[in-house]
Structure to design on (1292 residues):
């Protein structure tokens, strides 16, 4: 392996730039050439390639977004598209690929790797933390802190007006952000896709809180919650309890951006190095991850398919602390 | 005047606590007693009073929200309610009142002051900056910075994906936050209630930007814009330009909270002192404000009724800088 | 165990309030009474006690510092002082104690527990992360982020002026903050107490960086580094390399304060609950900690005496990424 | 005027990039060409020139530092150096120059403009706010907020330990940062170069505070204070009052960096546009500034030489609020 390409794909996550920097510099450290591919798989097909030197990744460790851009590619879902992408890699003598992204990214990578027997290693980059086999994904810690800081601000106004706030956070299939954000923000309850939302229980919590002289309450709702998002839950509660002054905020895309936290930058640094080392150790079709503070290699297929479960102990902690 | 009461009312704004601190401490400095009224006019009717000492306002200068809480009061809109409130003030020998809030707060204050010939001075506390006679209101600078920081985050993801974002900010009747936020965040265009939104012009800007190789665009929309909010504008644009990848974020209540900026704390400090000095100088039914860095006294009636206009020169600046 | 006291002691750390909240609420959840002791062991001797209800720990999860205050106590180092403290606990029918702090705190706790056979459980609260048996201490993640944000700011000016900056961070005996902060901030090198500072190596790094056209460099120095702090190292380098434009910043006490990060709040929540559960499970003289995301119990004696080593793999990552 | 050059010089300040963007884009808006000069006057001599297009200043409005770098130039202080610089400008057909910086920058600009009858307009960029003729300089508001956020963190630990903190902030000749920062941070006293530090008065404040049951105190010291910096004042106080637990923090270079606040970005935008308009209106040897929210033109000689005084009314506010 002499020339390694790197791309970012799917929803962007804070720390992707730190990961690009780590991939680029560690590859150069080991004497390899690096090519940046812009716009993910789309750029692989359109040959949006550029040689990357150490200086090209200077001063990006602190930036959100991704300097390599991201995009969706319908063409890459076709055999022809992937064939074209493969030819482009061959023409440029690219021997291996690092992809930074989430499950969609790894699904595409797996198929491509199989079809062309091409070495690909993945770095988990998604705010949702929903990849199996790694304790954390790059971007998750930053998004969690963004949520907590936003809820801190909303709590100011919730307390001043004694209101009940429903705050919707990202996480279509996974409640990591909502559950951990809820504990960190001192919320009264969380609604997450992993558990059927029991409106009765929710009401109990809210009532208990108010009875105990809590004058304001905050409930975090994951966007993927089966009860239907913050607005729909809020209107159910409003109907039931007209005495509550209910408000809704949907945090939205602010959760994807921002300067990465220390943890996310360190994680990105370690995983970026690990991805290059994995390629040099002849690994392919694996995601590098971190488990119990050690680097692990997880087959793409496992990272995508297996379910990563939220720590149920945390739900108990949340309940104890919201009394 | 021996005993002065202070309350916050209406939508809360960052810096209200710094204003409460300044009112309390400067009154004590001049040898007066201070009474905090909780829950605004509602608390005036329900006699939610509490003596305030210097130590009671320690360590609050940096907090968002208001330690005196805020609430709406329908009862205060009736003659009976105000009569009751007045009796409560008399019973406690309260001679004067400082109210911190926006136009609703001052409207109530003006009526009360007329009916009972009671000395009231107002401190402008609202994130909207829509009070006539003061260059800035307490909370505006903080909300502006909250907006800019949020847009900075969204720009990360807008740039990574090359999207067109419509971001809705507060300001039902006033475009200060949207216009100034738009300039500070480097947005392509702003839609504000002061001007009829001309969809044609908007389209021109967006098209010009894209033609000039701008790959992402951000448009700030004031919630009071006549074209109907960010979602409605976004869907018009989407229909017209299906090639654009359009997204909407409504910033919501995060704009009301958070630790106040340096400017807001200094403003709150100066106006809090000025409010007490105005009372001691026999002023009544005035809002204290700041114009050209000097303290001014503005009759409630002028502060509420007169229209404060946005600086049109800024619109020109925005246009030049978004090329 | 019916009545449990809680105190904070030693250097304060962000998240201590979140830990106090968790201890208080989980004890109440299990039907116990809670007493807050102000000013650490000093307050135990002076009987600075106060009953804590659930509402007393509302709205503190986001605050730095400690509402229970902290202090040093020489008297507690004497047998008489501790005897007095014990009598105070007995008089108030306090059956058990949770102490939140670092090694000094646990050393005192261990002696007290032995002398009076009194059940004490410790929660690790220190920004230095230097307690054995727990992967993280409460406050460490926040301090790390504070450092990284400060270095990000300094990098702006270092880059603009092409300077070499030595930045001193906390950590008298432990290099966790400097090493992890260095990786997260993209620094060129770190000097930590765990390793003899080899000036030659340092010079090599700096020279290499400059030769490779790096125009600015940042070196993080732990205050406990054997080479003598940032100022002393900087002057050595300046003598050696007069061509460099060298600057020094000592970050100082900002590292101890600030609103805790999401991680620190969650950790504080989990450990606070775990401390109460440990007492109810008849544990004593143990620190609760977190290892591999699971709660562990570590004898005070081990937590204090055993050395926790920095992850040497991280030094390698730092080197690769600073090329 | 067809081709306009722009440079930054002297100490960097947050918002310089926003000013570069505004100068560049408004010049292009008016159909002019723009040349960026790297490394200030040094780069003018070494011909570090680069054509700037609208896209070259994309996505920099939020960055601290200066993309055009800054440097000191001894050569520019000689007639020969300036001659060489002038020849370079002529060779590239540069007709006019915008310089962004502080008094050193404008002093150089004034001499150069006189010698070669060359049109130069200045934009005030310095965190110290010490230029006469403009209410605010670009960078001041950001530095003020950086200081206030740092003091907020230190207050956490000051309160927890009941300490007396002396915090040194920038401002060699001007106390704007210390005085306004002191009010905004709720400090007990400030020491600034504009006034002889009266140790007796300082002691009175500190004693009064402690007597009144204030348990912690914060004093802001401008680096240029005649009493000799925070360390020297702290040791005087410590000798006098051994009962106080005194600490010192020197904030240092963090004050120069960071993402600019909304105010600084808007100011930079307006002044950048105004600089280009001033050149097109045949102005030379003037700094553009803002007074009472209006653009003004101030001769370099006045901006540098005349003294800008701190608002003495603010000292009174500080005293009232620190009781």
């Amino acid at each position: 392996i002499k020339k390694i390409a790197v791309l970012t794909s799917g929803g962007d996550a804070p720390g992707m730039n730190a990961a690009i920097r780590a991939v680029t510099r560690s590859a150069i450290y080991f004497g390899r050439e690096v090519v940046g591919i812009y716009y993910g798989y789309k750029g692989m097909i359109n040959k949006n390639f550029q040689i990357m030197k150490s200086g090209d990744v200077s001063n990006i460790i602190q930036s959100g977004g991704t300097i390599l851009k991201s995009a969706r590619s319908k063409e890459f879902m076709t055999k022809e598209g992937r064939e074209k992408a493969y030819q482009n890699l061959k023409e440029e003598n690219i021997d291996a690929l690092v992809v930074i992204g989430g499950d969609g990214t790894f699904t595409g990578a797996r198929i491509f790797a199989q079809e062309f027997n091409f070495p690909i290693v993945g770095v988990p980059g998604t705010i949702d933390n929903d990849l199996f086999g790694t304790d954390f994904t790059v971007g998750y810690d930053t998004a969690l802190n963004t949520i907590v800081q936003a809820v801190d601000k909303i709590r100011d106004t919730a307390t001043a007006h004694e209101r009940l706030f429903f705050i919707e956070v990202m996480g279509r299939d996974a409640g990591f952000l909502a559950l951990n954000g809820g504990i960190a923000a001192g919320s009264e309850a969380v609604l997450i896709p992993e558990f059927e939302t029991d409106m009765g229980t929710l009401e109990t919590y809210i009532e208990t809180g108010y009875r105990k002289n809590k004058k304001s309450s905050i409930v975090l709702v994951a966007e993927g919650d089966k009860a239907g998002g913050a607005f729909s839950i809020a209107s159910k509660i409003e109907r039931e309890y007209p005495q509550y002054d209910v408000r809704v905020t949907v945090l939205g895309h602010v959760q994807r951006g921002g300067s990465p936290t220390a943890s996310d930058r360190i994680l990105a640094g370690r995983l970026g190095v690990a991805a290059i080392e994995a390629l040099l150790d002849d690994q392919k079709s694996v995601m590098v991850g971190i488990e119990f503070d050690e680097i692990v290699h997880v087959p793409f297929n496992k990272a995508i398919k297996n379910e990563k479960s939220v720590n149920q102990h945390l739900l108990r902690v949340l309940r104890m602390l919201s009394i």
